[in-house]
Amino acid sequence: MERLAARVAAFDGVTETAFAFTEQGEPSLRETLEALCAKPFAEILILPLFLPMEPSLLAWLKRSLSRWQLEAIEPWPQLRMARQVSESDAFDRLLEALTQSIADQTELVPAARKAAEGSLVPPQKRRVLVCQGGPCNAAGASAIWGHLRNEQKRQNLRTTGDGTMTAKTTCLGPCNLAPVMQVFPEGTYYGGVTERAVDRIISEHLLEGRIVADFAYEANGRKQFLRG
């Protein structure tokens, strides 16, 4: 990613480049955008390098960008988004060059069979599931997952407190409350989850054992709606 950013920096008209990750990885997209927005730029061009670029991924990206701008204290500069990389005419030329550059290709040799290895059963008492169903993905679940994983690494959540394991999951059920997370062993459902909600869930629920009522929804047998 650093090399790609350096190559883009050599293009005419480019003042500064930065890279970011939409899921797990640092720096996150939001952190990078906030850092760039603190500088005197009139415009920022986002070059999405998702392969493949699924419609739901593009939908949550646009919604997340809109939400982050609304949450910002100072107005952001104008945002524009380039076409998907796979839609560019140059992408065909790139693929053709990669397939024809035999000198740059690595011959794959079958690995030697390894002896069977054992595994430790995770001792962590807490589990956090992040829904990856269609409505949740459209509402930005991928960004929530990335933020959670970054914080898990940053705060050493696997070994801090009761210990926490995180995992993506298929539909958790309450789709109209997207994005949805569920925390065990309590089985608490959290809806309308944002990065700030994740931060509170970590500090209050995962580390102190207190359910965050502002984002929690009980299984009460009645239809529920996202709280404003």
From TrEMBL:
Q: Name one GO molecular function term.
A: lyase activity
Organism, by scientific name, is Oryzicola mucosus
PANTHER family annotated for this entry?
A: NADH-QUINONE OXIDOREDUCTASE, E SUBUNIT, POTENTIAL NAD-REDUCING HYDROGENASE SUBUNIT
Q: Which domain of life is it from?
A: Bacteria
Which keywords describe this protein according to UniProt? Lyase, Metal-binding
Q: Which residues form a coiled coil?
A: none
The answer to whether keyword Nucleotide-binding applies is: no
Q: Mind telling me which InterPro entries this protein's record contains?
A: CbiX-like, NADP_DH_HndA-like, Thioredoxin-like_sf
Protein name according to UniProt: NAD(P)H-dependent oxidoreductase subunit E
